[in-house]
Specification:
The chain is an alpha+beta fold. The chain has helices at about 55-60, 90-95, and strands at about 10-20, 25-35, 70-80, 80. The structure holds adenosine-5'-triphosphate and magnesium ion.
Length: about 130
């Protein structure tokens, strides 16, 4: 007989929207991203350079540099717990314990470099 208790997905992203406020306007880096990852599951996200893979992962850990970045909407549930609602102190306890990130390029991640910016007037991000 099936267990009446249905466990939440390990990670559940719902309608995540992340913007960067730039001098040229609001750049929408992640636009309504939704996916779920269950226990024992592996998810690969594939897309062209600049499509928002890293910003999505950084958002899950709440490591998007703010400003200029900001999570403009959506939910990030880890084992059913809303990470976007946690205090920074609570989030520090989550990072490295419940969830971690292996950075793509640790030598240059925080060093900037050239970036492709898409300007959008999407209402969900407001104006810069
Ligand atoms: N600090 C920032 N300021 C402005 N725009 C940014 C910033 N960081 C990221 N972006 C923009 O967010 C978008 C998504 O970038 P992201 O780094 O997530 O792409 P990616 O899919 O990981 O690309 P790659 O495959 O090259 O690693 C890009 O358009 C990028 O220019
Ligand atoms: Mg990347």
């Amino acid at each position: 007989m099936a267990d009446a208790t249905i466990a939440p997905p390990a990670l559940d992203i719902d309608d995540l929207t992340v913007c960067f406020d730039t001098q040229e306007g609001v750049a929408v880096a992640v636009d309504g991203m939704s996916f779920s990852v269950g226990r024992q599951e592996t998810l690969g996200i594939v897309g062209e350079s600049g499509c928002g893979k890293s910003v999505t992962a950084l958002s899950v850990l709440r490591l998007v540099p703010t400003p200029p970045g900001r999570i403009a909407g959506g939910r990030v549930l880890l084992d059913g717990r809303d990470l976007l609602a946690l205090s920074e102190a609570e989030m520090r306890r989550v990072r490295g314990n419940a969830i971690s990130m292996i950075f793509q390029d640790p030598m240059t991640t925080s060093a900037g470099g050239s970036r492709r910016i898409r300007i959008s007037s999407r209402a969900g991000c407001g104006s810069a």
